[in-house]
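Dear support,

Our group has been running a series of protein-ligand predictions, and this particular one with zinc ion is the one our PI (initials K.S.) wants archived with full inputs and outputs. We had some confusion internally about which version of the output was final, so please treat the block below as the authoritative record. The input we submitted was:
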Amino acid sequence: MIELPVRDPCDLCEGMAGREERWAIIDESEHTLTVINPWQFEVGQCCVITRRHVATLLDLSREECATVLASAKRVAEALVKTYEPLGILTFQNNGVYSGQETPHFHFHVVPRQKGSDWGIGPPQLATFDGAGRQRGTPHDPGGDVQRRERVQVSARQLAETANRIRSNLPK
Ligand SMILES: [Zn+2]
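Confirmed final output from the archive:
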């Protein structure tokens, strides 16, 4: 059974209701919003979220599935134009055992740059040579608390980042 994380109130629903200070919308569609991720492990990292409060991929309708990927592609194009990244990482967690922290569907879209230390992000990247450490050097979780603080940029910076990406969305 997939165990869901508990977060009450849901931070994404709070954002949609205008009650989240660190909230900036990049793109909108009938079924989804693309928003800046308040945790900027990579500058410009964002998420496509469903307008409906549903937890996982298993809860999505066909239309939502299609729109999520189309929205992810749109913002990926804008990220390439804005940051000229070395790669675009997408990932999505379902259940606490997969690393899901918010019980509201969100699909991560992340522009990857050389030398960034993802740290507490996806484990496959924590050991990946291109994640900013020398090959064979494991991620040291000792600095994760400080890392979590460091990547929390101000609401104003988040809004500026969102504006920049939005200006490069395909017409
Ligand atoms: Zn929600």
